[in-house]
């Protein structure tokens, strides 16, 4: 797995915003997004572009607190068909804010890394996952670069303990392990301890092991974008179901 810089995360974010906007252009914005229940493509686009502008504002200000995203003025177009173009504008707006800031500058974040660099990585994978949502809804082929996907799985595991609004506190155990393995060579093992869980890069099997073809497939598994019928499971399937119900962001 490669080591990413803030600048590389930012450039990859720019590409992903553009890819998502291009996927949406000309599409039926009333199409249901089954991986985000209750949303259609218009709402998915509004959410994603709104998050980009919210993050950009906090980075520009080196915010010491969370801004209220719901009350921010984002310039969201009223007409749904204009929203892909509005989303595409974020490919300039967000990277400009990220690259203008010192990646080591302290600021608010909801993750463990309370620096600007948290946001370049977080916005990359926020965008990747929602591009996947859009492409699944549109019925077009989904692809994610393997190095992006590997970093995305690692980021999910890094930030999961900080998702205090989900049932993460229940993810405890007596040493059981969940192994996530891709045929391309990417692999992680999550260990459930009595007081916490932790993860490490490893190719070892676990109490339960998930096997997929690629890290891109694993990314969709951990973010709940793949059903249990879409990947191979070895070992305690009940443990995996229990983990998946609680390991949510």
Automatic annotation (TrEMBL):
Residues 147-241 form the MDMPI C-terminal domain. It comes from the Bacteria. One of its GO terms (cellular component) is plasma membrane. Transmembrane segments: none annotated. Residues 12-134 form the Mycothiol-dependent maleylpyruvate isomerase metal-binding domain. GO terms for molecular function: metal ion binding. It holds the Pfam family MDMPI_C. SUPFAM superfamilies: DinB/YfiT-like putative metalloenzymes. NCBIfam families: maleylpyruvate isomerase family mycothiol-dependent enzyme (TIGR03083). This is Maleylpyruvate isomerase family mycothiol-dependent enzyme.
